Amino acid sequence: MGDALFSILVDESRDVSINEQMTMIAGQGYDWASNMQGEFNGLKLLIMKENECAYYIHCYAHQLQLALVALVKNHVDVQSLFNIVANVLNIVRASPKRREILRDKQTMVVFEGLKSGELSNGRGLNQETNLKRSCDTRWASHYGTLISIITMCSSLIDVLEIIADDGSTSEQICEANNLVELMQSFTFVFCLHLMKDVLRITNELSQAM
Question: Model-level pTM greater than 0.70?
Fold first, then answer.
């Protein structure tokens, strides 16, 4: 501003109520979309016509996320993993009652683990009692979701079994039964831990970018 260089980044993001909100932060970045970086009508050109010093940085973190999306779409088992995870989140988070049951179940798991010595006690340890919802345009968020699934796996299966026993519709009962079976399959567990490791590495890279 004034005689100093500046940059802007405008994007959308979901808030805690799952509503899209416009966010503005320091730093100007574009992906390869023509409406953003286009040489003739892109936002970059419009801004630089106003100020030639409005330098920009390409959003390499976004490129990394696009690569991860391409990976998922081209591997059936990995795509199935994220579909199952999304369905689990949807059915378990569908009502406050189910979320409360999940918290109670996970609290008991943590308590029993601490009591038996299987879990360590300390600041910031074993505090996970809520599922972390991922965002399709923020693949770093999928890493947190997979960690939640691994940490709360037994509690999630307990909740799904409760839904399978007393679901309000036959569709809910069928879906819950299918998810219980899928979550205990070798393919799901293998892909879950594989993608957790992959996203752990790419999450560090994404943060650096």
Answer: no
